[in-house]
């Protein structure tokens, strides 16, 4: 094990140039935003106080990072099989980076980001936002711990490695609980807007729907990123693993469709979906992409074993989820508050954050052992726990 | 005793004295714009040439802004006013998003932005005085007093002139009650900022509290379930290994142990040493 990371000037490739341009633009936007206020770089206003940065960077960012807890639960708790172990590390890394980017986005979006620590000491347990703040803080810590073995392995730090491994089950359970809470709470945030939101998206079941769709997209994102890693790092795809995940997506999306449509029927709002409105069109597009297309593709035996089709199905689900979150946070309010479209500055910051995520993932994947199966995988938590004190 | 303001839309002549008094009291600039903003805490809207109405904070009995704020920057005071504590605010703007009357406004062009809204001149109330706007009103269209007394007076006015008023006191029950009450000669359906919550008597914070109050249950139940599932599955795997070692069998299939029948679980428990 060589603890050395080689540092030399990287070659300027096309994607690196794109990243550089985005960073320069985002830095410019940051300067304007922190000197002239949010109004100078966003189209936000009193009756549209949450825009792209909340709708995409936060709502989608958190949901797309759901693979972290979904896969961790399947592998560590439900123990669905050894072959799935190879995907845990890339997924945990994606989740960790996702949450760091969400926090970065909040530093742009919050009016007074230097007060971001206030929920630690100023409590309001009636506030959904308060709960989300705590869960995100705690879960980001848990993700750091879940990912830490990779760093410890790289540098050969045996004692912390043993310690973290002996508590891994606790971290995983804590992670699953925290994720369940705040994935659903992001939906609960909107429960308090019954009159403002379009009935196609307002539902007392928003927290449940947010949770189910997050689990689904957690699986789809894992397929998606396995495919990209395969292309970028020539890492052989474990096809049977991906097919297993695709079956999971079918199950989750069928449950999602059932809950969503039953709820709409019970609340007598299904009629809105059959009007000739922009909302109805966006609603159907969302349903098609998020649930129908992936279910169809993954249900056809000939297609599900083809890498390209696996990828298309996963991408459809991811796009559908993004549409759902944007519809909830933006489309559903436009009828009441008037149209909103982000300024280029909002889009640039979002793009820069996403690009940074890809770049950091690439860098970590190159320099840390995230694709190798962890050295002795989980040597029985009890055994490791009893050994740890002798090292201390 | 909780204070309040009674707005009698039939008496408002649209002179905007209240707006001017509010600006002076709060040292706000007259920007000429006619909507709620960091420079306008109260606006007199013109519904048609004869009907004017006040648009300002309703000072809810169970304020949505105070409920949603993650750092409790809003406070419903005992006197009635809902006030905002600048030093706590993190700028998440959930209050703007959630307010059922769309009252709070934001300093969108400040690097250290503040939330602005009517605070019913809380400092004057503490001194025993009445708000600047009600003091300035020449016709009594906005009247300050104890909320209970104002409710009695509103009922009285409607009873005395039943043909003049809509038989409804807005704010008596809407969103759980508000400190600012309205009586009107025109239907409340016509008043844009009041219409959406007309007859919605449930306080909005109930909608999220219903979910939040379940959290301890969810955490305990799910926590126990997760550890339980882990224990059962792990136990099965251990027993399998044990059996393999003892009898040196061909390893059985280990994948997809997703559904564990209850009988299996019982079996695992009884065979435990």
Throw out a few tags for this protein.
heterodimer, A: 392 residues, mainly alpha, disordered C terminus, B: alpha+beta, 2 domains, two-stranded antiparallel sheet, 9 helices, 9 strands, elongated
Q: Output the CATH homologous superfamily of chain A.
A: Formate dehydrogenase/DMSO reductase domain
CATH-assigned fold name of chain A: Formate dehydrogenase/DMSO reductase fold
Strand order of the largest sheet of chain B: 8-1-9
Distance between the termini of chain B: 68 Å
The profile of the biggest β sheet of chain B is: 3 strands, mixed
Q: Regions of chain B with pLDDT < 50 over 5+ consecutive residues? A: 262-273
- Provide the gyration radius of chain B in Å: 29 Å
- Which spans of chain A of ≥5 residues are poorly predicted at pLDDT below 50? 375-392
* Biggest sheet features of chain A: none
- Count all strands of chain A and give the number: 0
Structure notes:
The complex is a heterodimer of chains A (392) and B (273). In chain A, 71% of the residues lie in helices and 0% in strands. In chain A, helix 3 (67-77) runs antiparallel to helix 8, helix 4 (88-109) packs antiparallel against helix 14 (344-367) and helix 7 crosses helix 15. Chain A is globular. The longest helix of chain A is centred in the last third of the chain and has 31 residues, at 307-337. Chain A has one domain: Formate dehydrogenase/DMSO reductase domain (Formate dehydrogenase/DMSO reductase fold). With 392 residues, chain A is an all-alpha fold. Chain B is of the alpha+beta class and 273 residues long. Chain B has two domains: 3-203, Alpha-Beta Plaits; 215-270. Chain B contains nine helices and nine strands. In chain B, the strands form four sheets. A three-stranded mixed beta sheet of chain B has the order 8-1-9. Chain B has a two-stranded antiparallel ribbon with strand order 2-3. In chain B, a hairpin with a 5-residue loop joins strand 4 and strand 5. Chain B is elongated, with a radius of gyration of 29 Å. At the A-B interface, helix 1, helix 3, helix 6 and helix 8 of A face helix 2, helix 3, strand 6, helix 7 and helix 8 of B.
């Amino acid at each position: 094990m060589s603890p050395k990371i080689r540092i030399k000037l990287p070659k300027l490739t096309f994607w690196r140039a794109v990243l550089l341009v985005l960073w320069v633009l985002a830095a410019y936007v940051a300067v304007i935003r922190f000197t002239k206020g949010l109004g100078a770089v966003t189209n936000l206003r009193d009756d549209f106080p949450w825009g792209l940065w909340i709708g995409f960077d936060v709502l989608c960012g958190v949901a797309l990072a759901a693979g972290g807890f979904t896969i961790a639960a399947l592998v560590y708790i439900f123990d669905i099989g050894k072959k799935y172990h190879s995907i845990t590390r890339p997924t945990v890394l994606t989740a960790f980076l996702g949450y760091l980017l969400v926090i970065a986005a909040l530093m742009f979006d919050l009016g007074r980001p230097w007060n971001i620590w206030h929920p630690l000491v100023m409590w309001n347990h009636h506030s959904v936002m308060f709960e989300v703040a705590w869960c995100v803080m705690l879960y980001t810590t848990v993700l750091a711990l879940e990912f830490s073995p990779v760093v410890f392995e790289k540098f050969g730090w045996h004692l912390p490695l043993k310690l973290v491994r002996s508590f891994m089950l606790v971290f995983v359970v804590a992670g699953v609980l925290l994720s369940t809470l705040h994935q659903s709470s992001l939906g609960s945030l909107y429960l308090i807007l019954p009159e403002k939101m379009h009935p196609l998206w307002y539902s007392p079941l928003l927290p449940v729907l947010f949770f189910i769709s997050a689990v689904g997209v957690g699986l789809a994102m894992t397929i998606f990123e396995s495919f990209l890693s395969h292309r970028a790092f020539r890492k052989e795809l474990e096809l049977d693993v991906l097919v297993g995940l695709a079956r999971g997506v079918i199950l989750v999306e069928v449950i999602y469709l059932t809950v969503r449509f039953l709820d709409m029927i019970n609340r007598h709002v299904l009629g809105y979906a059959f009007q000739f409105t922009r909302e109805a069109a966006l609603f159907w597009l969302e349903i098609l992409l998020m649930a129908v297309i992936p279910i169809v593709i993954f249900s056809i035996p000939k297609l599900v074993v083809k890498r390209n089709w696996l990828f298309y199905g996963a991408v459809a689900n991811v796009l559908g989820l993004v549409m759902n979150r944007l519809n909830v946070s933006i489309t559903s309010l436009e009828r009441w508050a008037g149209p909103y479209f982000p300024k280029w500055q909002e889009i640039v910051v979002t793009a820069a954050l996403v690009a940074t995520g890809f770049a950091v993932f690439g860098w970590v994947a190159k320099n840390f052992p995230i694709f190798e199966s962890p050295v002795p995988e989980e040597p029985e938590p009890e055994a490791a726990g009893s050994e740890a004190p002798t090292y201390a | 005793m909780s204070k309040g303001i009674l707005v009698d839309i039939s008496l408002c002549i649209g002179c905007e004295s209240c707006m001017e008094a509010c600006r002076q009291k709060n040292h706000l600039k007259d920007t000429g714009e006619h909507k709620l903003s960091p420079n306008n805490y109260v606006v007199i809207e013109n519904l048609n040439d004869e009907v004017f109405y006040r648009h300002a904070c309703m000072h809810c009995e169970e304020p949505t802004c105070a409920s949603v704020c993650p750092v409790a920057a809003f406070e419903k005071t005992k006197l009635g006013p809902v006030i905002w504590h600048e030093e706590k605010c993190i700028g998440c703007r959930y209050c703007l998003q959630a307010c059922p009357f769309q009252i709070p406004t934001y300093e969108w062009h400040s690097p250290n932005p503040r939330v602005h809204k009517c605070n019913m001149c809380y400092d004057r109330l503490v001194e025993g005085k009445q708000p600047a706007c009600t003091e300035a009103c020449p016709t009594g269209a906005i009247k300050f007093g104890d909320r209970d007394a104002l409710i009695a007076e509103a009922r009285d006015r409607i009873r005395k002139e039943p043909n003049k008023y809509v038989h409804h006191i807005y704010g008596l029950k809407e969103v759980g009650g508000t400190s600012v009450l309205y009586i009107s000669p025109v239907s409340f359906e016509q008043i844009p900022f009041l219409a959406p919550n007309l007859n919605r008597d449930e306080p909005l914070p109930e909608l999220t509290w219903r979910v939040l109050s379940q959290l301890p249950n969810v955490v305990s139940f799910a926590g126990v379930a997760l550890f339980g599932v882990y224990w059962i599955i792990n136990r099965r795997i251990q027993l399998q290994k044990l059996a393999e070692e003892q009898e040196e069998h061909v390893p059985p299939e280990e994948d997809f142990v997703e559904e564990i029948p209850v009988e299996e679980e019982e079996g695992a428990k009884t065979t435990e040493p």
